[in-house]
Amino acid sequence: MRPGFFLHRTAQLFRSTLDRSFVGQVINRVYFDHLEKSSSICFVSATRMREEDFWNKSLLGKRLKGWKSLPNVRMRIAFENRRGLPVVYNEAIAEADAADILVFIHDDAWLLQQDSLQEIQRGLRRFDIVGIAGNQRRTPKQFAWYLRQPAEGSPVLDTPYLSGAVHYGQIFKTEIHQFGPWPAACELLDGVLMAVRAKTLKRTGLRFDERFDFHFYDLDFSRTARKNGLRVGTWPIHLLHASRGDLNDPKWQDNWVKYLGKWKQ
Q1: Cα angle: 145, vertex 256, 1; to 5 degrees
Q2: What is the pLDDT of residues 86-129, one digit of tens each?
Q3: What's 219's DSSP letter?
């Protein structure tokens, strides 16, 4: 284990011990209050759109456009992007202020509630990495975070181990797909939104694997985090996603092969 992961887990254990007493809980609350007041939330995304089109046409652009004036919100968007998401995300990690909260998010996502920023902060008081949907376990030859492969036949939903929710539809007319209860500790997260403190990434050296492009980077990132003892979980951050994903996409198949080659199952 890298020294950074050991230091991080030691800090986790210390805060967990404090939580067992009333005084310790107060100390933890003061610590996180100070951390949040001194940090910015930086949204990191990539889009194929030109900059003007992103702000005026994409779901994420239209949502963030209304938050530009907030003093604690920053944005790092890769416009007209053709690179894999891990490359874009790793660049953002390298250049981030250690105090930042990094929110890795797809450009076709809309945060539905005004208190989403506060919910992200609340989630990171409990977990090191927060998402909106995930799986509380891993299974062999997993084709997506929400599926398991039975002995025979096609993949099926991995209930009752799923957690979180995703909204589909339109901004003012959404349909919620509740995968399972949240918040919950998870092994795998959906990459549509993943939030983590830059300090955690810089301390541990955790990065996205650039062998993946737009698929399986989220499973790999979650799995690497869990392997090294980081707390990964879902939090009730309501998000509209314009895409349900295409499991028949050849690129999905290619990245699945890479994922299995790396992890062996």
Answers
A1: 75
A2: 999 999 999 999 889 999 999 999 998 888 999 999 999 999 99
A3: H
Cα–Cα nearest to 50, from 82, 25, 79, 74: 79
Q: Which residue has the tokens 């105090």?
A: 99
Q: What is the tens place of the pLDDT at every residue in 11-35?
A: 666 566 766 676 666 666 666 766 6
Q: Model's pTM, two decimal places?
A: 0.89
| Tokens found for residue 263 | 């992890």
How far apart (Å, rounded) are the C-alpha atoms in residues 198 and 201?
5
Q: Residue 169 — left, alpha, or beta (φ > 0 → left; ψ -120 to 50 → alpha)?
A: left
| CA–CA distances in Å: residue 193 to residues 3, 69, 101, 144 | 28, 22, 13, 16
Backbone angles phi, psi at 176, to 5 degrees: -85, 135
Q: Which residue type is seen at 81?
A: N
- State residue 11's pLDDT score: 64
User: What tokens appear for 170 in the block?
Assistant: 């339109």
For 30-36, the CB contacts below 8 A with 24+ separation are 32/121, 32/125, 35/99, 36/121
Q: Count Cβ atoms within 10 A of the Cβ of residue 201 and give its class: 0-12 exposed, 13-18 middle, 19 or more buried.
A: buried
Angstrom distance (rounded) from CA 225 to CA 88: 19
